[in-house]
C-alpha cells in the first residue's frame, strides 16, 4: 500500500479532462483569463470534488472491478488497499473539501453544478444507470457537462446559451469515446452483466451508433462558433473542422471493420479531442 495506490482510487487520468472543460468554459465566458479567485474555485474545488466522486466510484465498483480483466489490478480488487472503508472516507472527504472550496470562492450556482456533477456520476450513473440500461453512458455523460457549466457560471450568468452548448459538447462527445473503449472490453462488461451498448448489441451495431453520435457531435462543436468574432472565428473553425473530420474518419474505419484494433484507434483519437476543442476555444476567446 502506497500513496500511489490512493491516488489511483481517484482515477487521475479523468480529472484533467474535466478541469480542461471547466477552465475552457470559464475562459470563454470571461473572454480572457478569469480572476484568481474563480480559478481557485473552478480548478481546485473542481479537482477535489471530481477526485472524490471518482474515489467513491472505485469503492462502489470494487466487486465488479475484481471480475473484469481491465480493472482487476486496481488498488481495491487487487488487495493493495485492504481496508475498503478507506476509499469511502477518502472519496467523501475530497468531495466535501471540493464543495467547501467552491462555496468560498465562486458563485453558488457554479458550486451547485459541481455538486450536481458528483451526484449524477455517483448515485445516478454508478448505482442506477450503469447496471440497468445501455443508455447508461449517454445519460451519465451529463456529469461531465456539469464541469463546463460550473466553469461558465463561475464567471457570468450572461450568454448562458453558450455555456450550455459547451456543456452539450461534453455530453455528446462522451458516448463516442466510451463506446469505442467498450468495443474493446465488451467481454468484460458481459461477464459482469453491465449492459454497455457494445456488449448488448455487438460491435457491428455499436460502431454504427458511434458514427451517428459523432455526426451529432460535429455540429454541436460548431454551434457556438459565432461567439468568436474576429481572428478567433477562423482559428476555431479551422482546428475544430480538422479534428471533427479526423474523429469521424476513425469512426468510419471502425464501422467498416469493427475490430478491436480499429476501436482502439477511435478511442485513442477521441481521448485528446475534447481537450483540443476546449483549448482552441480558449485561444479563440482571447483573440476575440
What does this structure look like?
The chain is mostly helical and 288 residues long. The chain has one domain: Farnesyl Diphosphate Synthase. It is 78% helix and 0% strand. The protein contains 15 helices and no strands. It has helices at residues 3-9, 15-30, 36-60, 62-65, 75-78, 85-105, 108-129, 136-140, 142-153, 160-184, 186-191, 197-201, 203-222, 231-256, 260-287. α2 (15-30) runs parallel beside α9, α2 (15-30) runs parallel beside α15 (260-287) and α7 (108-129) packs antiparallel against α9. The longest helix is centred in the last third of the chain and has 28 residues, at 260-287. The radius of gyration is 19 Å and the shape is globular.
